[in-house]
Design goal:
172 residues, 8 helices, elongated
Length: 172
């Protein structure tokens, strides 16, 4: 069930149907990625505005980048960036995304925004733009296939295969 190899099909119609399903997964995964990216940006904008209010000055781009990459107060955003990169690797893979890949993307994003991260929940509660993007992301996840609880461990391990497949691909 968790193979990245395409399923062999006999007829041209069946191959076209399988191809259309894979392309549909790619489009749906990309929509979820775009929503996750918008939420990530809204969270950064919120933290940036709060920092600017606290210091009374605008943050230059270099300082913002330094905060994002090295400041312990901002490190809770790293999993968002890392997941976006992982999804990019999946979408850039030679093989089209499978049902399992789509379900794994949904599960990974749901785990990220499920409320365990207190700062995420607080940001949703205090900023309308973050709340809006959080809601849009939830709506985009509804278009991805779900998974049974017993499938979660196998699906969560799929993320490693996305970057491995990209590393094995020859450079152009």
């Amino acid at each position: 069930m968790l193979s990245r190899s395409p399923v062999p099909v006999c007829s041209r119609a069946a191959r076209l149907k399988a191809y259309a399903a894979a392309m549909s997964h790619a489009a749906t995964i990309n929509a979820a990625r775009e929503s996750l990216l918008a939420l990530h940006k809204a969270l950064i904008d919120l933290l940036k505005a709060e920092r600017q209010r606290a210091t009374g000055r605008a943050l230059p781009p270099g300082e913002l980048l330094q905060l994002l990459t090295t400041d312990p107060e901002w490190d809770w955003l790293h999993p968002y960036s890392q997941l976006i990169v992982s999804i990019d690797e999946l979408l850039e893979s030679e093989l089209p995304p499978t049902d399992d890949d789509a379900a794994a993307v949904r599960l990974e994003i749901e785990r990220l925004i499920d409320g365990r991260e207190k700062r995420h929940t607080e940001a949703v509660d205090r900023d309308t733009n973050v709340a809006l993007e959080h809601g849009r992301l939830g709506a985009s996840l509804e278009r991805l296939p779900g998974a049974e609880l017993d499938e979660h461990p196998a699906l969560l391990s799929r993320r490693n295969s996305w970057s491995e497949a990209r590393r094995r691909r020859p450079r152009r």
